[in-house]
């Protein structure tokens, strides 16, 4: 699932290996281990502020840890690192909170190419599997092919797509989004997933349009969709969207990539918002709820 974290996994494993067989850890051992962990995280492209805080906590906890009978020192450090990783990844698993009065409105925001449209299909398929009846909404009217792409994705997921009528000009994305809610009420869809336009970079118009759509549909959940392969830009982009639009949760895409994915590991901590879903391929099935504890275990092998 997580090729982007393989190097980090290997580095941490190598670090813990040096502790194996020790019956007690001196402060010097702990400091050396902390330095190794720091390098491993930085090499994986985890955000510097997040790394500093992480390493300081691990060092402090390791030094003050009571020697427990059940765990040897290296297991104890691994346990601390595991718990701290779960912490920076957001702690508890958190997915969509459904509205008491349907439809639950989910809005997708993010840069162009982040994987929003693909994600819309994956999310719709997942929602269907949970017994929901989702309506996908094409409010990305920026790219000429975006509506068509969402229709293709909707067809593959076996869900309905609400789009501006052809021949009606480009249409106004805010108007389309607004009408989609009426449509959902009329035809009893209980979840509405609104795909919005992105740009290649942060841009005031884009933010304004996303904010206008948000105001028009009053979403229950705004999901920020981000490509895990774009490095530290992922953190910068998250901050820009947090300020410009605001969001409730994060979706990491392209975790199947081969770039260093550490920036993605920083997003939950930097924004204070949970990672809800992870996407790891182009197929609609390559998608899952994000579990911080499972991800931490996987990174630690
Ligand atoms: P949008 O502009 O945000 O709507 O992004 P798209 O959904 O059009 O995705 C951009 C490109 O990334 C497309 O070629 C997708 O097939 C691809 N893509 C989306 N999600 C993933 C993923 O998780 N892994 C990989 N490898 N490719 C993805």
From TrEMBL:
TM spans (from-to): none
GO molecular function, one term: 7S RNA binding
Compartment(s) of residence: Cytoplasm
Keyword Cell membrane attributed: no
Keyword Ribonucleoprotein: yes
Highest taxon of source: Bacteria
GO biological process, one term: SRP-dependent cotranslational protein targeting to membrane
EC number: 3.6.5.4
Residue numbers binding GTP: 110-117, 195-199, 253-256
Keywords: Cytoplasm, GTP-binding, Hydrolase, Nucleotide-binding, Ribonucleoprotein, RNA-binding, Signal recognition particle
Catalytic activity entry: GTP + H2O = GDP + phosphate + H(+)
GO cellular component terms, A-Z: signal recognition particle
Annotated SRP54-type proteins GTP-binding domain residues: 274-287
Subunit structure and binding partners: Part of the signal recognition particle protein translocation system, which is composed of SRP and FtsY.
Family: Belongs to the GTP-binding SRP family. SRP54 subfamily.
Function in brief: Involved in targeting and insertion of nascent membrane proteins into the cytoplasmic membrane. Binds to the hydrophobic signal sequence of the ribosome-nascent chain (RNC) as it emerges from the ribosomes. The SRP-RNC complex is then targeted to the cytoplasmic membrane where it interacts with the SRP receptor FtsY.
Domain notes: Composed of three domains: the N-terminal N domain, which is responsible for interactions with the ribosome, the central G domain, which binds GTP, and the C-terminal M domain, which binds the RNA and the signal sequence of the RNC.
UniProt protein name: Signal recognition particle protein
The organism of origin for this protein: Microlunatus flavus
Gene assigned in the entry: ffh
Residues of the full protein shown: 8 to 308 of 526
């Amino acid at each position: 699932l997580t090729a982007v974290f393989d190097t980090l996994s290997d580095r941490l494993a190598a670090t813990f290996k040096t502790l194996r067989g020790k019956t007690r850890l001196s402060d010097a051992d702990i400091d050396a281990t902390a330095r190794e962990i720091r390098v491993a995280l930085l090499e994986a492209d985890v955000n510097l502020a997040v790394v500093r805080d992480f390493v300081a906590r691990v060092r402090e906890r390791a030094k003050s840890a009571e020697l427990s009978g059940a765990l040897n020192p290296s297991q104890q450090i691994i346990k601390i690192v595991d718990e701290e990783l779960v912490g920076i990844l957001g702690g508890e698993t958190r997915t969509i909170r459904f509205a008491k009065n349907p439809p639950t409105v989910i809005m997708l925001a993010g840069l162009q190419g982040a994987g929003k449209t693909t994600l819309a299909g994956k999310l719709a398929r997942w929602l269907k599997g949970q017994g929901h009846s989702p309506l996908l909404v094409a409010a990305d009217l920026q790219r000429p092919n975006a509506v068509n792409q969402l229709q293709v994705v909707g067809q593959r997921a076996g869900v309905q797509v609400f789009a501006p009528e052809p021949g009606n000009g480009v249409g106004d994305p805010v108007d389309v989004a607004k009408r989609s809610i009426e449509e959902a009420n009329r035809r009893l869809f209980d979840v509405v997933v609104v795909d919005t336009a992105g740009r290649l970079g942060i841009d005031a118009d884009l933010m304004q349009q996303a904010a206008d759509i948000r105001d028009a549909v009053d979403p229950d959940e705004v999901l920020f969709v981000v490509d895990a392969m774009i490095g530290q830009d992922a953190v910068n982009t998250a901050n820009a969207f947090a300020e410009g639009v605001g969001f409730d949760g994060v979706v990491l895409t392209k975790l199947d990539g081969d770039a260093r994915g550490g920036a993605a590991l920083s997003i939950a901590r930097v924004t204070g918002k949970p990672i809800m879903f992870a996407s790891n391929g182009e197929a609609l099935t390559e998608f899952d709820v994000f579990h911080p504890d499972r991800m931490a275990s996987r990174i630690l092998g």
